[in-house]
Amino acid sequence: MEKILEKAPKIKIIFFDIDDTLRVKDSAFMPESITEVFYKLREKGIMTGIATGRNLFGVVPEVRALKPDFYVAINGAYVENAQTGEVLYKNTFSKELIEEIITWLKNEQSGYSFVAADSLKISKWDKIASDAIGPVYSELEENPNYYKTNEIYQMLTISDHDDQLELPEILSDKIRLVRWHPNSSDIVPMEGSKAIGCQKVLQELGLKAENMMNFGDGLNDRELFDFAGLSVAMKISHPEILEKADYITDSVENDGILKALQALKIID
């Protein structure tokens, strides 16, 4: 604990995951203590960011109301200064790559969703899609050709056999799968991650990894936990994230974020 406390004074910016970190994904519960946390961090001159697999459309009003300084969205593929609206970084899929992915998923009898900066479309809306995406984005419009006229930053697999999907050789060096639900995986660029998006913010600010802290719980936080100077896992985190964490805190419902920041003496 002593070594962790030595890292705390160097922190200049803190990034927060949304689902099951800032708020409970299934119930949408967000404790009042989160508002207190963001207020106290601002008072101390510590900047804040949202680092999420969601796109901007999925950043719900109560999270926007926290007035973070930066959005690292779509697993790092889209980075925006939340105060000015300036886009600091974006990494889109080529149409050729998307068509290769669609061909593969069709052969695997899997549906798919397109993730743009502020909208999502799906190949088919059914119960499988509803179970996975409904709690996050609600019902999506069907549009299997959406990629032809819009920039796409990420795709999602949608199937009841998602754990059996394997990338073909033609795609294995271009993309990777990050499972976030029994029925769905994020399809991200091989080099894409929240860590890359947060690194773009640090470069903009002239900061180093040691100046950054993050809170998370899922496998899409894996690279971020390797990169950040100080990483905190929620109690219910994936075992791999718990293993990588510098500090493990309580659940969302039990004010885990506030407790961690107080224990690490970042806020009172």
TrEMBL record:
Gene behind this protein = yjbC
Molecular function in Gene Ontology = magnesium ion binding; phosphatase activity
Q: Which superkingdom does the taxonomy of this entry point to?
A: Bacteria
PROSITE patterns on file: COF_2
Which InterPro entries is this protein grouped with? Answer: Cof, HAD-like_sf, HAD-SF_hydro_IIB, HAD_sf
Record protein name field: Cof-type HAD-IIB family hydrolase
Organism, by scientific name, is Lactococcus lactis subsp. lactis (strain IL1403)
Which Pfam families would you find in this protein's record? Hydrolase_3
**Any one cellular component term from GO for this entry?**
cytosol
